[in-house]
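Long-time lurker, finally posting.

We've been working with RodZ domain-containing protein (Chitinibacter mangrovi) and I want a structural starting point before designing mutants. I don't trust myself to interpret raw outputs, so I'm hoping someone here can both generate the structure tokens and explain anything notable. Sequence follows.
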Amino acid sequence: MTEQLDNIPSAPFLPAGRQLRAAREACGLSIDDVAGQLKLAHRQIEALESEAFDELPSNLFVRGFVRNYARLVKIDAAPLLEYLAGVLPSEQVAETVLSTYPQVEPSSPSLGGEKSSFPLIVIMALIGIFLGVTAVYWYLQQPSNPDIALPDMPNPVALEASAASQLLVNDNSNASVSASEVVSSGVQALPASMPGVALVSPAASSASSIIVASSVAQGALEISVLTESDSWVQILDSRGNKVLSEIIRPGYERKVAGVPPFAVKIGNAPKTKLTLQGRPVDLSSYLKPGSDVVNMELK
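Top reply, 14 upvotes:
Generated this for you. Predicted structure of RodZ domain-containing protein:
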């Protein structure tokens, strides 16, 4: 397991709504995608991310929504629920229900000695509300099958290999043209069977250089992350272990080490600087039009 190297103390805790929104954007999901998976309305997801809790049902529902949302975007729900405990307004369900009924003066016994049945109705209504809230809470605890296939990103190594193959084809074509020009100009070429002389193809030399250059030493490499704005960053090593997974605040540098290749996800790539072994990594080449999210493999 790789060791994290923290040069600067951890950043303050972010509000729950901002963490959920950043994790959703890092997963490449829209608000409608999340609403469909959690079976909620579009406006309810917006209210959660903006922490407009007065637009949502009771605190019990809000906690359930946040727990399922965190499970969907694969972040820990415990810190978010702890944060909600300090920001949600206190509720008194029984007083709220009782306040909806008009105040009734105690009635005197009727001639037949029977008392009003109104208190019994109120008690039964409270029991029914309690059972309904309990059933809804139990339903919210059930898994909602949040596993969503993230959009596939093109493999940068495969793209480089394709470009190298195209370069080799061009080199072969140029070599063929040059050989034809030499023959047509009357210059005598060396015999193939001439002893002590070995003919080396330029294309073969280029291919050998590319193969040697693409080989990576199997050792631990250091990655440094520095942001200019809040950015969610996740880095997995070659074994799939999480080397880094958190929201990095501006001005806080995070350094980690691991065995490549690394699977890197960045939620705010334009405001993030990434270096590998002290060499800057150009994140702009991995951005898609209209998106700030980067999914890449780093070797």
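Before you design anything, note these points.
Residues 1-12, 92-114, 167-217 have pLDDT under 50 and may be disordered.
Residues 135 and 281 are 51 Å apart (CA to CA).
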